[in-house]
Amino acid sequence: MRVPAGWRRAALPSAGLVAVGGLGYGLTKLSDSDAAANWAQLASVALAVFALVPPLISSWRQRQPGGTSTIEQIDRAERTLRVLVREQWREEIVMRELDQPARLPVRWKISGLDVMDQDERIDGARLLRSWFGLGRVRFDGRTDRMPEMAGRFRKLARRRLVIIGEVGMGKTTLAVLLLSELLKEHREGDPVPVLLSMSGWDPSDEPVHRWLARRLRENYPALRASGFGPDAARGLVTYRRILPVLDGLDELPRPVRSKVVDALNDASAVEALILTCRTSEYLAAVNGGGGAPLAGAAVIEPRPVKSADVISYLLDRLAPGQRAGWAELLAALKSEPDGPLAEALSTPLVVWLLYKVYIETRANPAPLCDSGRFDTADAVTEHLLDNLVQATFSAAPPDDDPDERHEHDHPFRPQRSWDPEEARGRLAFVAHHMSETGSRDFRWWHLHRSVPRRTSILIGGVSVGLTVGTTVGLVSDAVVALRSPHAGSLRDALLFGLAGGPVGGLVGGLTGGIILERLKGYSLEPAYANLRWRGNVTGLAGQLALGLVTVLPVGMVAAFALWRVAGMSSEVGGLVLYGLVVGAIGGVTLGLNKWVTTPLTNDRPQGPVTTLRRDLRLVYGRSLTFGTALGLAFGVAGTLVDGFSGLLRGAEAGIAFGLAGGVVFTLTFGFTGASSTYLVAVAMLRARRRVPLRLMTLLEDAHRVGLLRQVGPVYRFRHERLQDRLAHLHRHPGENR
């Protein structure tokens, strides 16, 4: 009979505890040292392993949202979501310079490819079509006239739009501008447009409505607030309160794309939507392998940018003193409209690259006119991509005016100075990491995937185990020698702690590392501490029960060790009382720590930096709390069973144990937090000169200057081609044209 995976995972930490407990007991029987020191060694081993139990249990016990929010709660959640999305994309549009008055006019038209549903399902019944069979669906528009495009979108029968085009043609830019315009001209009954990356989604494993609700909870954690009910995100999807703007169908594997389109066609909870995809990938998805077009959706594609529009755009942005140096390039665009330079600049991406690399830095663009060096459009584009990071950081120094009251407070300038070449090398590694993991999203809590798993576990087990064992061995031996009724030399106790503590800690650390190695699917997500009682009573009761079930057996094992080894009580009743006190206090503390660990929530969208800071505060706050409470439990319980001579000595011993326990759990339980694994990965990668210690500061600065965009708690490169090129440069560091 096959044992369920959950029970197998639960058995691993239990087996580890039994094995290490038996080892510790054997050591105490074989050693000639006094009983107090033996007990200290056993405590150091047990604590080192016990600290790893809670995160291991949480790895297989994942709670899912449940229940249904009321209509009033969903209404409030919708209003909040609208504000969050508006604030998020207002800032992004400014940082991506999409709000310029003289915007590059990219023209869009209905696709001539066979990728659309019947006209009547897209644009409704029209007189000429229904009576005479004349006419076709129209959806002409320009990115510099977004109110007209938003109005045309609203007139579609089902408000479904697919934006196709080749790389760099501005599909995502159009989707963002359309989202912003729909929010700006909000009308009663309009759903909230929300842009979501499709990377990593497979509708065979996760239905449309469930995936949408999960992504809403991830990208907008404010929806998890108790005031919106048990599951506001699911309610928003069910009642069609959102307009999904789904970016990047082409980023999914080929077999999955047609499944996504079919799933969207079958999803009753999804009516209006906007979808972006490369042309060839969308054509294959809807015409190959039994696929079908997105029902009721208009499909539009861009026209190449005209050289005259590019020239006008560049002239609007050139300072009077710059125009003389650009005369040769502008003349080449006029005289060779089919040349490699004009071909490259026929896409909005390359026009923006030219602006960043040459106009902002006031560099001379004459080298681009060298037809021998840049004989193809790809050569021009790759040259601009290769120099984008350096040019951007060179043109955007930090706001370090000493007369300013709030130094580095400018939202669109870097927080600190970066060497442009170093910045490019570090971002190239980040791009390589993302490409190796098959993602367009940089999640800081996944950075550990760039470090060999077994190496990190070995290093972590040895370093944490030695630190924990030495700390607990020294402190516990000193406390026992000074405060217990058993006579003993402080010097002997400290020497024994130095000898036995590291051994016990190393055994415990390596044992925990082996357990973590077996849990291949073990993953951590950012969280924060939520101390609100309202709506969480049931969850609190469940977590307290789990804590008691987990810790009570450990308390009884510790009591047995003290009874048999240290002789702190000769009565069986004292044994039971000690175990109950330690187990109850430890169990309640563990339950409270688990209960307060909740997904991030606030009244603003949570960025990557905010999620990291809050997770750090949670991890180390609960670690110190857990360790201190458990140490006090040992001291109080020892007093109750006459192990210490008086309440004062018991309290003093408990405080000392608590401080030691706080250090222990900070170094073990703390290192099982998402933020802690990130810090360990950064330290290991910094030693290999892959990333700076202030990696998040670099990424935030790259976001400020427009190289990255922020989508909820993750970063994405402004364009996938930039990510791909930087990843290529990381693999071939000598290449730079």
UniProtKB/TrEMBL annotation:
Region (Disordered): 393-417
Biased composition (Basic and acidic residues): 403-417
Stretches assigned to the NACHT domain: 159-252
Transmembrane segments: 36-57, 457-482, 494-516, 537-563, 575-597, 618-641, 653-685
Keyword tRNA processing carried by entry: no
PROSITE patterns on file: NACHT (PS50837)
NADP keyword on record: no
Gene3D superfamilies linked to this entry: P-loop containing nucleotide triphosphate hydrolases
Keywords per UniProt: Membrane, Transmembrane, Transmembrane helix
Full protein name: NACHT domain-containing protein
Species in which this protein is naturally found: Microbispora triticiradicis
